[in-house]
Design goal:
The chain has 162 residues and is α+β, with helices and mostly antiparallel strands. The chain contains five helices and four strands, in the order H-E-E-E-E-H-H-H-H. The chain has a domain of 86 residues. The radius of gyration is 22 Å and the shape is elongated.
Length: 162
């Protein structure tokens, strides 16, 4: 199926990556353009992009397709299509290095703190503790938290208090 003429005029050729990990075959295609910058009422628009993801589960053969559109302040000179695709991929490192760790180490999804600023404050405190442990060289956050719970001296040492 060919793209409509307006689509081909706005978005140049596709940059594509293919990965096969975790039992999935993934194709990511990105198209970027700065042609619309003057027409968008969006501050600091550097370029727009169209990102298509096609995932196939290897075992079942089931295929999922997803297309997202985005705007970035990065100009084409600062981020070509390959770089934008890489940045989009790295976005998930936040999920994996922060939210997942908070949920596994603190069982955050079952937290009963749900009113006013409580959830934000607790998330900030948990992020602070995780950051301290990472700065101290801990690679396994849950075991490092247990070690701090067993020894208040260790926890105070992380805070710079002896």
């Amino acid at each position: 199926m060919t793209s409509p003429l307006w689509h081909r005029a706005i978005f140049p050729p596709v940059y594509e990556t293919v990965d096969k990990k975790h039992g999935r075959h993934e194709i990511r295609r990105i198209q970027t353009s700065a042609v619309l910058n003057d027409y968008l009422e969006f501050p600091c628009c550097g370029q727009v992009f169209r990102l298509e993801r096609v995932r196939t589960i290897v075992k079942t053969g089931k295929t999922e397709r997803e297309t997202v559109y985005g705007i970035t302040s990065l100009t084409p000179a600062k981020a070509d299509p390959a770089r934008l695709l890489q940045l989009n991929r790295e976005h998930w490192s936040i999920e994996n290095r922060s939210h997942y760790v908070r949920d596994m180490a603190y069982d955050e999804d079952r937290s009963q703190i749900r009113v006013k600023n409580g959830p934000s404050v607790m998330a900030s405190l948990r992020n602070f503790a995780i950051s301290l442990l990472r700065l101290a060289g801990a690679s396994k956050i849950a075991s490092a938290l247990r070690a701090c719970a067993r020894s208040s001296r260790r926890a105070l040492h992380l805070l710079g208090l002896r």
